Amino acid sequence: RVLRVAILGLGSYGTRVADAMQSCKRAKLVGAISGTPAKLKEWQSKYNIPEKNCYNYDNFDQIKNNKDIDVVYVITPNALHKEHVIRVAKAGKHAICEKPLSVNAKDGQAMVDACKAANVKLLVGYRMHFEPKTLEVIRMRKDGEFGKVLFFQGLSGFTIGDPTQWRLNKQLAGGGAMMDIGIYSINGARYMIGEEPVWVTAQETKTNPEKFKEGVDETIQFQLGFPSGAVASCLSTYTMNNLDKFFLNGEKGFAEMQPSTGYGPIKGRTHKGELTQPHMTHQTIQMDEMAAIIFDNKKPVVPVDGEEGVRDLKIIDAIFLAAKTGKKVSLTV
Ligand code: NAD
């Protein structure tokens, strides 16, 4: 059974997903939701989307009467995810939501609860959870090939341009670099080490308070402690270019990936040699796998459900608190 998808938010990432879906085997782009009529017209002709599957932000609740759409993929600014996903759930459709799931754990949990109450699935667009080289490193770790895992380093950042964009507006972004790109190091630390952190420490630096206003983080270094004793040391930034590197160290070996989370190809090596798994467009595999998760209850190697999104948000909440107070924040309570 083919997953029939409508995309809500036809911006730059929405377009990337739409393009990638043209190569999917089990997922098909069939609908679009936008506040801009001209974009809907463009998508209708570019992706062969019927007019009856196009909606705007005022009327998309009517999607509940549309039998030709199974799932709505929400790709709007972070702070809008909550309202959009809850409306999708109330319309009785499954929801896929971009990362970060929301702007704090409480709102993320409300989204999980709303989808549960509506008996629809909620998945988060964690494309790295399906990436072949990433999955090979996870397999090696699970098979004990690194021995006891001791340390992870994650560096996630880029230099952000236009100061007027929503990513630098606390109301729409919910934060700064951490919500947008630092989340890759948080999520990566969890899937590379294979444990949930129990404490967080964090230090924030700001070189440009004019561009990065109150509540919009420019650079945060953070550390995570795991139950086994493993530790992670990470950097999230909007002012250093092309920072995209993971390093995992264990008693018997290591994995090193750079780029580690970009659109690819991902490159990496371990103590056993180069990672040679073929590159596939991340969003194409993601959408095919999500069809299997939604229709066949397939269990992915690393979860992509709403709860997984909330786990990262709890850590982000704790990082912000640790950076503000200078104190070590426990994640076990
Ligand atoms: P974008 O600015 O290119 O697109 C956002 C879309 O939302 C636009 O079409 C815009 O018109 C629409 N929108 C609706 N209401 C809006 C409002 N009130 N203000 C501003 N825009 C509004 O942004 P993007 O890069 O496509 O990011 C969208 C989401 O996708 C974000 O949550 C981001 O974190 C996520 N994303 C994920 C990845 C990934 O690799 N998984 C990559 C990029 C972006």
Automatic annotation (TrEMBL):
Q: GFO/IDH/MocA-like oxidoreductase domain: from which residue to which, for each copy?
A: 137-255
Give residue ranges for domain Gfo/Idh/MocA-like oxidoreductase N-terminal: 3-126
Show the SUPFAM superfamilies listed in the entry. Glyceraldehyde-3-phosphate dehydrogenase-like, C-terminal domain, NAD(P)-binding Rossmann-fold domains
Q: Give the GO molecular function terms.
A: nucleotide binding; oxidoreductase activity
Keyword field? Oxidoreductase
What Pfam families does the record point to?
Answer: GFO_IDH_MocA (PF01408), GFO_IDH_MocA_C3 (PF22725)
Write down the superkingdom of origin. Bacteria
Annotated family? Belongs to the Gfo/Idh/MocA family.
- What is the protein's given name? Gfo/Idh/MocA family oxidoreductase
